[in-house]
Write a structure and sequence with these properties.
alpha+beta, 3-stranded mixed sheet, 10 helices
Length: 388
């Protein structure tokens, strides 16, 4: 019996979650536990594998339906290998046609069965895609999984935009076998079904004859491709050119279609998702689409007013400081911030004033400051005490 796993609990979603909810939960957890973002963390790597397995099951309609009904998923259908608890080891239904058992007017079938409401052939078709009298000749094609990649860029690359070349490790269609998974040479007898094309599987006290999942009913196996070992896909490193648009911020996600893992049996590949991390700048601070900067000024510039040069992301700009400017006061330079492609507009630059005390180097400067205190005897802390 396959080990019991709660794929819903692994992804943190309810059992009635929509496909979109499952996809969002997977992407969130994949980013959190991806080995590239947790180098050397074996626990995170194992958690990432569990998240990937859960998404592979719940994102596939047939696999999810089987898991919801039986509490497990197995590539071979029903759990097998022997009688189940309470079952009859000598009781088998191999090759029996249950289609009439669901029909109350079917005579002996109805009398012996009494199953009522639906045929076993319908049940098989839900999970294995087989109709009565047909054999599954091909394994189901599955879309390739998505890949997550973390990209670090500096402040100026984020502001101006840039073009980067990434070496992405991904599963791609095997070039040796063109995705078939088969190598050259004569075929051999399938070891799972011993050449019969069918295998017996147990469901409670009943034994069913099902199409062999290894040879897909043919009874023969071709030699596996020596490059991909029958997988049909092989690990490869591909150079991918990625354009980072102007205004990218930490947490921005870029999608590169078809650059995830290749699908099986000709199914489409997954996508590559790139999460951007922007390195901090020693002077500029990003605040959404705005850029903030702290600019030091002298006491005389703040007291008398002045025109000063300040750095912006576009170069130098002139800022007029009015007379009596206070420490910490902020001024706005319109459209000197970050370009937002979605809004087709730019943010502003916020300039915060930091007044620096004068460097008293001689007696003459000391006397001037004393004279200033006599001319302006105000107590800057007078209002402070009234509010305590």
């Amino acid at each position: 019996m396959p080990s019991t796993k709660d794929y819903y609990q692994t992804l943190g979603v309810k059992r009635d979650a929509s496909s979109d909810d499952i996809r969002k939960a997977y992407r969130r957890l994949a980013r959190k536990y991806h080995p590239d973002l947790n180098p050397g963390d074996k626990a995170a790597e194992e958690r990432f594998k569990q998240v990937q397995e859960s998404y592979d099951i719940l994102s596939d309609t047939k696999k999810r339906k089987m898991f919801d009904q039986y509490g497990f998923y197995s590539e071979n259908g029903f759990p097998g290998g022997g009688p189940q608890p309470g079952g009859n080891a000598g009781f088998g239904f191999g090759g029996f046609d249950f289609s009439d058992a669901a029909n109350p007017g079917a005579g002996a079938g109805a009398a012996a069965g009494g199953f009522g409401g639906g045929s076993f052939s319908d049940l098989f078709s839900q999970f294995f895609g087989n109709k009565r009298g047909e054999q599954q000749q091909h394994a189901p094609a599955e879309k390739g999984t998505d890949l997550e990649y973390s990209l670090h860029i500096d402040f100026w690359q984020a502001i101006k935009g840039t073009q980067v070349r990434l070496n992405i490790s991904r599963l791609d269609q095997c070039g040796a076998c063109h995705g078939s998974g088969q190598g050259g040479g004569a075929s051999v007898t399938c070891p799972q079904c011993q050449g019969t094309g069918n295998v017996n599987q147990m469901a409670g006290a009943m034994r069913f004859s099902l199409t062999c999942p290894q040879c897909h009913g043919t009874g023969r196996l071709k030699n596996a491709c020596p490059v991909c070992h029958g997988e049909g896909r092989s690990q490869t490193t591909e150079a991918v050119e990625v354009r980072i648009p102007p205004g990218a911020a930490t947490g921005s996600r870029l999608r590169v279609g078809g650059k995830g893992n290749s699908g099986t049996m000709g199914a489409p590949a997954g996508d590559l998702y790139i999460t951007v991390r922007v390195e901090p700048h020693p002077v500029f601070t990003r605040e959404g689409d705005d850029v903030a900067i702290v600019v030091p000024v002298t006491v005389t510039e703040a007291g008398l007013g002045a025109k000063i040069e300040v750095p912006t992301v576009d170069g130098r700009a002139i800022l007029k400081i009015p007379q009596g400017t206070q420490n910490g006061q902020k001024f706005r330079l319109r459209e000197k911030g970050v370009y937002n492609s979605r809004k087709n507009s730019r943010g502003d630059q916020i300039v915060e004033i930091a007044i620096q005390a004068p460097d008293v180097r001689d007696e003459r400067m000391r006397e001037l400051l004393k004279e200033l205190s006599r001319l302006d005897p105000r107590d800057p802390r007078a209002d402070l005490w009234s509010k305590v």
